[in-house]
Request: fold
Amino acid sequence: MTDDANLLFKPFRLGDLELKNRLVMAPLTRIRASESTDAPNELNAEYYRQRATAGLIITEASQISQQGQGYIHTPGIHTDAQVEGWKKVTEAVHAAGGLIFVQLWHVGRISHVSLQPGGAAPVAPSAVQAKTKTFTAAGFTEVSMPRALEAEEIPGIFADYRRAAENAKAAGFDGVEIHGANGYLIDQFLKDGTNKRTDAYGGSIENRARFALDVVDTVCRVWERGRVGIRLAPVSPANDVQVSDPEKIFFFLVRELSARGIGFIHVVEGATGGPRDFAAFDYAGLRKAFGGAYIANNGYTRELAIEALRSDRADLIAFGKPFIANPDLVERLRRNAPLNQPDKATFYGGGAKGYTDYPTLEAAE
Reply:
């Protein structure tokens, strides 16, 4: 292995945590929580345990409230049963020598009335319907028309984030990542295509960033700042969001996040799950604007990851789909071995097939 390749496997200090390598397992929605409770279960614990050789695991997105849920059978972190389920996961990962953060999620408008409390409309910064689908009991379904959040409701959402952050501690997580990307609630506030508000949470750059920063401040009252991160997607059109001024809003936001001293930003470069060159954006400048760790994400290969670390364009590299099919991805990348290819038909929902049954190199040999 070359010296440059060794960069992937060097330890990294994230806050007060020592990561054993620079490889992060990205959040991956798999829709396999327990049907009646949306609580993680033994199968989920085994899935994460298998992947504990990553320097850091960031769990699939986990809703902070029922209102925050957008897809059926995704795990939550707002009930006692869900906290108990997550304990199984964190204990399994820690027993295997891994570190694990939970991703805190509110989907905003990317939901359906069948998933909302009392069949209510999903909430959003503004009443702008998304041209996209979600996953319900009936399969993939057009999302419902949202309603705009009233100003007096917003503190209640911050309270939900606080409870979720407290529950993450109770469940034994090592830290939290706030989901601020991919067209969900925080991203909807950041981007002017979805935020048409005229109050303190809309209009100017400062106002559109306020919701994200208030969430971060809320979570940092529960967790040490070095154990808090946020995922961002400056130009991704995921879930039908548009932004006219990505560098203005995201450079402002990231400078404010840097001033708060949080542990990392986790940046989707390009279109989520799509082309990295979807739209021009100065990711190198964004990295320089932030004082903490920069996790680079989206379409990274072994070669791209090595080059990003060698050229100091990132501190850590997040891999998504490769971790689905390769529980031993770290060892495969170390040896530059072939990768299993993921079975897309088993991405969402189901049981062990396409989830915990992918072979390791050792098993294959």
User: Anything to note?
Assistant: The longest helix spans residues 154-170. The mean pLDDT is 97.
